[in-house]
């Protein structure tokens, strides 16, 4: 996606947003008729792309495709447009990853337990991976709640640990469907622990994650 030439510099619009979602929502609101995507002679404006992306997610969910959703909420993503998309995707998702920080931003007037309950009401069908950093993670689903302690790690950087946890969970579900949900959750925790040991948003491979799980300290 390419931001239209001159928008940021000349349209007199304040752009405090750095994430793609917030910028996209802003473009839909302020410049919905401008071209967002072009392929040969075909093009889509921002307003049409916004509508079609919502429709695509709904159609995929209706066909039984599992959707994983990480709201990755930040204070800049507080416009009404994002809230609408968050609630719509939460209602379609099979798996949702939310951190304790996400919940504070999404439901600022509620304590943690009430915020989780509010998310469950939005997504009663979903398994929610709730991450709490060094305090571990939970997998909350219609079948109950599983708890997983954080695995030992030599922490270099926590950037990307949340992404690693949901990535590890989904990878385990796809590659090892015979595992129990507790085993999938433990694999997610090991993936996050591997990421924490490296600077930046590091993505460990399966060999590294299995090595972490094999350590006596991970037992």
From TrEMBL:
Annotated InterPro entries: PfkB_Carbo_kinase, PfkB_dom, Ribokinase-like
- Which Pfam families does its entry note? PfkB
Q: Which family does it belong to?
A: Belongs to the carbohydrate kinase PfkB family.
Carbohydrate kinase PfkB domain location = 56-207
Single annotated GO MF: kinase activity
- Out of the domains of life, which is the source? Bacteria
Cite the entry's keywords alphabetically. Answer: ATP-binding, Kinase, Nucleotide-binding, Transferase
| Name of the protein described by the UniProt record | PfkB family carbohydrate kinase
Gene3D superfamilies from the xrefs?
A: 3.40.1190.20
């Amino acid at each position: 996606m390419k931001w239209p030439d001159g928008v940021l510099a000349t349209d007199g619009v304040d752009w405090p947003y750095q994430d793609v979602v917030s910028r996209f929502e802003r473009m839909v609101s302020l410049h919905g008729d401008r071209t967002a995507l072009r392929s040969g002679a075909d093009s889509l404006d921002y307003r049409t792309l916004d509508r079609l992306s919502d429709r695509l997610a709904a159609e995929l969910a209706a066909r039984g495709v599992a959707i994983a959703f990480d709201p990755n909420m930040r204070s800049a993503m507080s416009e009404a447009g994002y809230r609408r998309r968050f609630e719509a995707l939460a209602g379609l998702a099979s798996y949702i990853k939310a951190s304790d920080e996400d919940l504070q931003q999404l439901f600022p007037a509620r304590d943690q337990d009430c915020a989780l309950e509010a998310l469950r009401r939005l997504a009663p069908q979903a398994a929610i991976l709730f991450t709490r950093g060094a305090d571990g993670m939970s997998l909350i689903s219609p079948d109950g709640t599983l708890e997983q302690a954080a695995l030992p790690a030599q922490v270099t950087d926590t950037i990307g640990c949340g992404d690693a946890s949901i990535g590890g969970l989904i990878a385990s579900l796809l590659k090892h469907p015979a595992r129990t949900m507790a085993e999938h959750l433990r694999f997610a925790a090991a993936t996050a622990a591997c990421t924490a040991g490296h600077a930046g948003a590091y993505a460990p491979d399966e060999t590294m994650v299995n090595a972490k799980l094999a350590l006596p300290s991970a037992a």
